[in-house]
Amino acid sequence: MTARSAELFGGLVAPRVVPGAEASCSEWMRFLRDRVREKNIDATQVTTVYVPDAHGTVNALVGVALDSPSDVAVGDVFAYIPTGVFAVFVPSGALADPIEDVWAQVDECVRSGALFRAYAEEVEVVTNAGEVELFVSIVL
Question: pTM (2 decimals)?
Answer without folding.
Answer: 0.93
